[in-house]
C-alpha cells in the first residue's frame, strides 16, 4: 500500500517563535483513517496547514502521494487534499447549499452543464441532497459541516483533513458528522484517506490509527484501542483517557483491553457479585 502523505524531517516555527516541529516524520498510508490528538498548542492545526501548503516548511519534505509539495506543485497538490475547518459559519460562500458546493467546481472551471449532477452526488454522499436550495444560515451546525464536507467531496480529493470539525457541534450534530465520515469511509474504502484532528477521544476511537503530537514529535502512535489503555502515558501528555477506559480500569477486575461503550456494558452484565 502506498503512502498518501509522507513527511520527512520537517522543521517549522512561526516567525520569532521557537520551532514547533524539529525533525518531524509521519507517513499516512492511502486509505487509512488517522486521528491526530495532542494538547492545546501542540501544533496539530499547524501541521494540517503545512500539508495543505497554507504554510511553508522551514525545511524537510512533505509529499502527497508521489508529489513533493513545492511552490510549483502547490495547485496540483491541493487538488488531492481537501480540508474541513472547525467553525461551520466560516466556511460558506454561496447563497444556497447548492451554490456553495458549486463554488469550488467553478474555481476548477468545471463546465456548468456538468455541475448539477456533481453537486447532487456530493450532497447525497453526506445525506444533504434534500437541502440543496436551502440558505446556509437556516441549517444546524452539523448540517453545515456536512455541506462543508460535500463541497470538499465534489472536488474528489484523495485525502480529507478535518481540523476539529465537530468541536462546535451539539451531540446530535457531532454524531451525524461522524456517521457521515463512517459512511464515506465505507463507500470509498482505500480510495479515501482521512486525517481527523480532534480533542474528542470518542471521535479518535473511530480511526484505524491514532497519533499523539507532543513537543514537535510523535509521542505515541498505535491503534486507538491499544493507546486508550495507556492511561498514565496519555495523562502525561495532557490528554484524557476515554471514559470507558477510566471506568474499566476502576473496576476490581479490569478487562485487559479497551472496550467500547457497548462492549463494556455487555462485559459488565457478565460479572457476578
Ligand atoms: N498564526 C500564528 N502566528 C504565531 N503563532 C501561532 C500562529 N498559529 C498558531 N500559533 C502558535 O503555534 C502553536 C501551535 O498552534 P496550533 O494551532 O497548531 O496548535 P493545536 O495543536 O492545533 O492547538 P489546539 O488544540 O488549541 O487547536 C501555539 O503555541 C500557537 O499559539
UniProtKB/TrEMBL annotation:
The family database entries (Pfam families) matched by this protein are listed as: ABC_tran
For this protein, the record's Gene3D superfamilies field holds:
P-loop containing nucleotide triphosphate hydrolases
Entry membrane topology: Peripheral membrane protein
InterPro entries in alphabetical order:
AAA+_ATPase, ABC_transporter-like_ATP-bd, ABC_transporter-like_CS, ABC_transpr_CbiO/EcfA_su, ECF_ABC_transporter_ATP-bd, EcfA_1, P-loop_NTPase
Q: Where in the cell is it found?
A: Cell membrane
What CDD domains does the annotation carry? ABC_cobalt_CbiO_domain1 (cd03225)
Keywords assigned by UniProt? ATP-binding, Cell membrane, Membrane, Nucleotide-binding, Translocase, Transport
Q: Does the keyword 4Fe-4S apply?
A: no
Chief location bin: membrane
Domain ABC transporter per the UniProt entry, residue ranges: 5-240
- Claim: Plastid is one of the keywords in the record: no
For this protein, the record's NCBIfam families field holds: ECF_ATPase_1, PRK13648.1
Homology family: Belongs to the ABC transporter superfamily.
Q: What is this protein called?
A: Energy-coupling factor transporter ATPase
Amino acid at each position: 500500500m502506498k503512502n498518501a502523505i509522507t513527511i520527512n524531517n520537517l522543521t517549522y516555527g512561526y516567525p520569532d517563535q521557537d520551532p514547533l516541529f524539529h525533525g518531524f516524520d509521519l507517513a499516512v498510508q492511502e486509505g487509512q483513517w488517522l486521528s491526530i490528538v495532542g494538547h492545546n498548542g501542540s501544533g496539530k492545526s499547524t501541521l494540517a496547514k503545512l500539508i495543505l501548503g497554507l504554510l511553508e516548511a522551514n525545511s524537510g519534505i512533505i509529499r502527497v502521494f508521489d508529489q513533493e509539495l513545492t511552490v510549483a506543485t502547490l495547485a496540483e497538490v491541493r487538488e488531492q487534499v481537501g480540508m474541513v475547518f472547525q467553525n461551520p459559519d466560516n466556511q460558506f460562500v454561496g447563497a444556497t447549499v447548492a451554490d456553495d458546493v458549486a463554488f469550488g467546481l467553478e474555481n476548477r472551471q468545471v463546465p456548468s452543464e456538468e455541475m448539477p449532477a456533481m453537486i447532487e452526488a456530493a450532497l447525497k454522499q453526506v445525506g444533504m441532497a434534500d437541502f440543496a436550495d436551502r440558505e446556509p444560515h437556516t441549517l444546524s451546525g452539523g448540517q453545515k459541516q456536512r455541506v462543508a464536507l460535500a463541497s470538499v467531496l465534489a472536488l474528489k480529493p484523495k485525502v480529507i483533513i478535518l481540523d476539529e470539525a465537530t468541536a462546535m457541534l451539539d451531540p446530535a450534530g457531532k454524531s451525524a458528522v461522524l456517521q457521515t465520515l463512517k459512511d464515506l469511509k465505507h463507500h470509498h474504502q482505500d480510495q479515501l484517506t482521512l486525517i481527523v484532528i480532534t480533542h474528542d477521544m470518542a471521535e479518535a476511537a473511530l480511526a484505524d490509527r491514532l497519533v499523539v503530537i507532543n513537543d514537535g514529535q510523535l509521542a505515541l502512535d498505535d491503534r486507538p484501542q491499544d493507546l486508550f489503555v495507556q492511561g498514565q502515558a496519555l495523562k502525561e501528555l495532557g490528554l484524557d483517557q476515554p471514559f470507558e477506559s477510566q471506568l474499566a480500569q476502576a473496576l476490581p477486575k479490569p478487562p485487559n483491553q479497551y472496550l467500547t461503550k457497548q462492549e463494556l456494558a455487555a462485559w459488565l452484565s457478565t460479572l457476578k457479585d
